Structures are given as structure tokens and as C-alpha cells.
Amino acid sequence: MPANLLQYGDSAFEIAFSGERLTTTEQDRDLSSVFEKPEYARSVIENSPDCVNLLDIAGRLIAMNGPGMANIEIDSFVPYEGQPWVSLWPESGRETVHRALIMAREGRAVRFQGFCPTAKGSPRWWDVIVTPVRQDDDKVTQLLSVSRDITLHREAEEKVRRSEEQLQAMTQASPDLISIFGPDGHCEFCNERWSQFSGLSIERGSDFGGGDLVHPEDRARVAENWARCLRTGTPYDDEVRLRRSDGEYRWFRSRILPARGGNGEIIKWYGASSDITVQREITHALAELNARQSLILEERVAERTAQLKKMIEELELLSYSLSHDLRQPLRAMQQYSQILIEDYAGTMDPDGQQYLQQIIRATSRMDRLIQDVLSYAQLSRKTLPLNLVDLDTLTHDILAQYPLFKEPHATMTVEGILIPVLASGSLLTQIISNLLGNAVKFVPAGTKPRVHISTEKRGAFIRLWVRDNGIGIKPENLETIWKMFERLHVATDYEGTGIGLCIVRKSAQLMGGQTGVDSILSQGSSFWIDLPRAKALNS
Q1: pLDDT of residue 34
Q2: Separation between Cα atoms, residue 85 and residue 260, nearest integer Å
């Protein structure tokens, strides 16, 4: 191959020369006779995809192979025979062709690349070799040119060049610090932004991070991570502090990705470092703000908690007042009214006796209301442990305790043995008593209450059913009945304070349970309570 390269003219032709030779024993215008000895030479030239021309010593065309005629798009060699070979080339390339012919006449093989359109004007780039043809006496009598079409190769090179120019323009325009590293991790390119930031011109072969540009506290970590990436071929991604030209350290998010060749080997590393100083400052400011807000919130929670404790203490004082100060006058009213009825009934007319009975009933209702309010208030402050409760025994004890739950007043049916539950015995007694009391009370006039009690397993809960044959509940009131002081009937029809079912729901919730009701107006209601099973709580 070429020992030297020479540049000629503005057309950027490259000429190479060496000591290669091509000899023949004859000077014949017929290409076949030139290569008749040895015979295989003719076959090689005729089947070559290149354009092979035989020239006389003056550089005029003597012969051309068939593929060559096709390459330069001519149908016949006759019009070109005897024409100077240099005349086929454009004006801009003829000086290079002349110099190549001169060097070939001097006995040297010459190689150059140049642009020359075909006879039909198709643009072509050629890789050309011109060699001398010698006789036995070593005298150069003819010249041989071999031209290979490299248009596609040159177009590919041009595309690569344009892509590189575009890439360089993009990297120079980027606000990020762009770097390109070799497979060994040494820097081969840094964009202008990097130089402006660092104030340095990073030469080829410098280490990642620009050496002492990396903050001293980050250097060991950066070096270790970068070495691991070079060893394993994995992408680099880290946050690092880099020193600006004025000495200030800025935070950067640095990412470096490997580019691999056809065999999977790493041929380049492409890196970009984005300034995230402002982003980190904002994140830090937000964290401080959140910490201050959390502290303020904790202070407010503590303040509110103290206020709530104070309110609870005041409510407890109010409860004590309701329990003692308010109920005491009511009990006095009840007692004195009862004394009047018993001791002075004979001196009172029927209206007076009726008024006294109304006073007794009113004070009794007020006393029950106060007791129910106190019970609900106490529930809100209770934290009771849950224990295994024999629901079957508890229910039968309640039925035996209240006369209204027995014959002939009501028919109570307990289905099988009720399943034990995890609950507070006192709260569960209050729940069952309330539900059974309502089932007996809310029945049409003249109807004997019939109540069915049963249990069933429902996942992690046991459902207790209390079904009655009472007056039923309208669909729109199925949730209303659980609210405090909500009464669906006047006190003259059905007595009550409107707190009983509210206490039932609150008690069930304190034990981790739920409440509900299914009802059809005039056909009865089915109240249910879900309470935890023993296995559910233990697990």
C-alpha cells in the first residue's frame, strides 16, 4: 500500500505511490493480447467489477473492460478509443490525473481518489490506481488504470461527517456539561460549556470529573463508582459536586452511558452532567418548611389535646352534676308526688290525681334520659379489654331477669346454642337488653311480641340476630334510628329517650363490631350485631 500521500489542487485528491509493477511482453491495442500471457489475467480483468483501462505511454485510451464501460455508462468504446484518459475527468480533477500519469511513466504505481461523473452525468466518486506496464527490458511502454466506484462509501462518510457536525453543534449548544470518554474511561471530548464552567481546557486523556474539580468529599465515591462502571459496563448515575471557575461548588446529576460496537464491546462512553443546585436548594427548603410545619402541627395537636382533656374534665364535672345535682330534684318530685297520691288521694278529685300521675311519669322519663346520656358519655371514654363471652348463657340470664321477656307478656325463642364472641360482658349486656326491650315495646296494640334470637358465622365475625314481629321501619329511617335523640314515634305511643340504639351502635364499635337492621313496615324488623370471633382476635 502507499508509502506516501500527496495532496493536489482544491479538489482534495489523494495520490499514493509505491514500487508495484505490472509487466507484459507486448504492446498491443487489443486488451486480450496484452493479458494473453498468462491467460488467467484476462479472465480476472474482464470479470472485475472495476473500470480497467489500458493506456498508451501518452495516456490515451487503448482498451476498456466490459464492466468498466457499464460503470461509466457508455455503450461503445469506439468513440473513446485514442482519446486522452484525462479528458474524461472534470476540469477540477485533471491536474491530479496528469500528475498520476507522470508518476506512472516514471515507473511508480499511483493511487488517488477523485470525483468524475459518468458519460450520462451520474455523479461518481472513484478510487483509482495507475500502474506502469513494462517490457522484458523493464521499459515502461503502457499504463494501466483501475477505477473502483466508491460513491456509496463516500456518501456514507459524508453522512457520518454531517452527523458528527450536528452532534458537535448540539453538544456545544447544550447547557449541560457534555463529555465523551474512550473505552478505558479517559476523556476524549468536552463541550464548550464544560470549559466555561471549569475555566480549564481538558485535554485528551484526563480522568472523569476533571480530577480536582470534584469536591474532596465526593472524590473517593466518584472514583469507586466510575471504576465499577468501567469494569462491569453498567451506566454511571450519581450526584456530585463540581467546582466552578470562581471556586463555588455546584451540584450536578452526572449520567454516563456506554456505546457498544457490533461485537458488544464498549467503544465509547457518552456523559452529560446537569446542574441541579437550584433543584436541591428547593428540595432542601421544602424539607425545612415541612419540618417547621410538622413542628407547628405537633404544637397545635398538643394544644388541642390539652384543650380536649380540659373539655373532657369539664364534661366529667357536668356528668357528675347531672348524676347528682339534677337527678336529686327529680327524685324529690317523684317522691313527694307519690306521697300526695298515697296520703291525700281521698281529698283529691280525679283531675288532681291525674296531674300527679303525669308529673311522676314526666320525672321518670327525665331521669331515664339523664341516665342514658350519662351512659353514652361514659362509652366515649371507655377502653375496655375484649374477653371470650358465653353469649348463650348471657342471653338466657337476661331473659330470666326481666319479667317483660317472659310468658305471658312475650314469646322469646333462642335458636340452638349461641356462638361465643369476643366482647365486653357489660357492653354486650347493655346491647342485648336494649334490642330485646325495643322488640317487646314496638309492636302493634293488642299484638303479643314474638322474638327470635340466633347467631351465625360470617368470616372473622359472629352475627347476632334479634328478629321481631313489631311495627317495622320505613326504608328512609333505617339509618336515622341509630342517631341520638331520633324518635320516630311520639312518647304517648311508645315510651323512650331516643338514645338506646345510639348506645347499641357505639358499644358495638368499641368492641370492633358493626350494627345494622333489615325491616319491612308492619311486618317486623331484624336487628344484627357483628362481633369478633375468638380465632380472629387471637390471630
Answers
A1: 46
A2: 46
Cα dist. 332→327, 364, 534 in Å?
9, 11, 48
Backbone angles phi, psi at 400, to 5 degrees: -75, -20
* DSSP, res 492: T
Quote the pLDDT of residue 400: 87
Query: 85: which DSSP letter?
Result: G
Give the number of C-alpha atoms closer than 13 A to the C-alpha of residue 254, restricted to the C-beta side. Answer: 25
pLDDT tens per residue, range 454-493: 999 999 999 999 999 998 888 888 888 887 766 666 555 6
pLDDT of residue 371: 66
* Summary count for the chain: helices (H), strands (E): 14, 20
Dihedral class, residue 509 (left if φ above 0, else alpha if ψ from -120 to 50, else beta): alpha
Q: What is the pTM of this model?
A: 0.40
- Cα distance between residue 255 and residue 229, in whole Å: 11
Element (H, E) at 61: strand 61-64
Spatial contact of 9 and 98, defined as CB atoms under 8 Å apart: no
The total of other beta-carbon atoms located within 10 Å of residue 291's CB is 10
Nearest to 425, CA basis, from 389, 400, 457, 393: 389
CA pair distance 205, 194, nearest whole angstrom: 16
Position 398 pLDDT exceeds 80: yes
Cell 480536582 sits on residue = 212
Q: What are phi and psi of 452, to 5 degrees?
A: -115, 125
Our measurement of the distance from residue 23's CA atom to the centroid of its chain's CA atoms, rounded to an integer in Å, reads 74
Residue 451 β-bridge partners? 412, 468
The amino acid at 508: A
230 near 185, Cβ under 8 Å? yes
Is residue 323 classed as helix, strand or coil in its secondary structure?
helix
Contacts 24+ apart (CB under 8 A), 341-347: none
Show Cβ contacts of residue 97 under 8 Å, excluding neighbours closer than 6 positions: 85, 86, 89, 114
Helix or strand or coil: residue 416?
coil
Three cell numbers written together for 301: 395537636
Angle subtended at Cα 129 by Cα 127 and Cα 134, rounded to the nearest 5 degrees: 170
Close Cβ partners of 80 (under 8 Å, ≥ 6 residues apart): 61, 64, 74, 88
Q: Which residue, 50, 44, 51, 62, is CA-closest to 133?
A: 62
Contacts of 123 (CB under 8 A, 6+ apart): 115, 117, 151
Q: Give the DSSP letter string of 125-162.
A: EEEEEEEEEE-TT--EEEEEEEEEE-HHHHHHHHHHHH
Burial class (CB in 10 A: 0-12, 13-18, 19+), 519: buried
Helices (H), 135-276: 151-173, 192-198, 216-232
- Angstrom distances, CA of residue 41 to CA of 1, 50, 56, 59, 457: 21, 14, 19, 22, 102
